[in-house]
């Protein structure tokens, strides 16, 4: 993901995928030469944009930051939409079940606890402040979700909940790309990235997946599934929301705590 990076955020997932945020995108022409029409068709059938698909080890990166394993390309797409206003579109399928439950989170030994410990603590605080049926608890090891160090050209990655109702168990973060610091600005910025990836782990897809141009710029595209059968959540605004924690793109040092619409969606699901 670039400095104006593509981050992952807003609806519920349907397959075990991993979500990654690319820091630097390859030239569009090169990407298209690597992708077969069969793969493009499969990606579109899954409800993802076919623009700039990137071949990656074991699968493909779509929408700038979502990794789909190659063996998941032919999965059928089933699920409902949650609509929060006209722009925010949340799609649901697999969710974390067995509620209420505590989800433990930890940093791996490969990530600096002095730098990222306060970041993870802020993520725990943000989620637990919402009094959801899932609560986060930081542990030192053996966690349900582990934040581990990643390398390469992406900012962070995560997956969607399993079909058995468990959260995806690994978030990879590129600490070289994210940087380090002790300031409140850095902690909030990094916590937004961590919270976004954890959102994928519990089933949220990008808020603006129906129109990624909203947060990422460029031409508006909508290659996702239709809104037939959408669940309109009452009491939410009809206009766009520029501050959701699950928007697809985010700028450097931007802080996105949960806003009112995010809270509606979180409480509706959990």
UniProtKB/TrEMBL annotation:
<feature type="signal peptide">
    <location>
        <begin position="1"/>
        <end position="25"/>
    </location>
</feature>
<dbReference type="Pfam" id="PF12388">
    <property type="entry name" value="Peptidase_M57"/>
</dbReference>
<protein>
    <submittedName>
        <fullName>Dual-action HEIGH metallo-peptidase</fullName>
    </submittedName>
</protein>
<dbReference type="InterPro" id="IPR024079">
    <property type="entry name" value="MetalloPept_cat_dom_sf"/>
</dbReference>
<dbReference type="InterPro" id="IPR024653">
    <property type="entry name" value="Peptidase_M10/M27/M57"/>
</dbReference>
<keyword id="KW-0732">Signal</keyword>
<dbReference type="GO" id="GO:0008237">
    <property type="term" value="F:metallopeptidase activity"/>
</dbReference>
């Amino acid at each position: 993901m670039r400095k104006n990076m593509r981050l992952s955020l807003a609806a519920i997932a349907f397959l075990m995928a991993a979500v990654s945020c690319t820091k630097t995108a390859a030239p569009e022409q090169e990407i298209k030469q690597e992708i077969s029409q069969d793969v493009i068709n499969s990606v579109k059938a899954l409800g993802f944009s076919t623009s700039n698909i990137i071949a990656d080890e074991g699968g493909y990166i779509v929408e700038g930051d979502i990794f789909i394993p190659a063996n998941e390309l032919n999965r059928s797409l089933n699920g409902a939409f949650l609509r929060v206003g006209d722009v925010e579109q949340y799609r649901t399928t697999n969710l974390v079940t067995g509620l209420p439950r505590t989800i433990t989170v930890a940093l791996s030994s490969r990530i600096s606890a002095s730098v990222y410990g306060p970041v993870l603590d802020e993520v725990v605080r943000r989620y637990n402040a919402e009094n959801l049926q899932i609560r986060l608890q930081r542990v030192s090891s053996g966690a349900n979700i582990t934040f581990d160090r990643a390398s390469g050209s992406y900012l962070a990655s995560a997956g969607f909940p399993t079909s058995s109702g468990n959260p995806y168990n690994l978030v990879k973060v590129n600490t070289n790309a994210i940087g380090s610091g002790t300031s409140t600005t850095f902690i909030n910025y990094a916590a937004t990235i961590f919270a976004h990836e954890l959102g994928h782990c519990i089933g949220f897809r990008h808020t603006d997946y129906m129109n990624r141009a909203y947060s990422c710029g460029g031409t508006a595209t909508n290659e996702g599934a239709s809104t037939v059968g959408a669940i309109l959540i009452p009491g939410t605004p009809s206009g766009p929301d520029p501050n959701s924690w699950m928007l697809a793109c985010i700028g450097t040092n931007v802080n996105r705590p949960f806003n009112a619409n995010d809270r509606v969606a979180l409480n509706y699901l959990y």
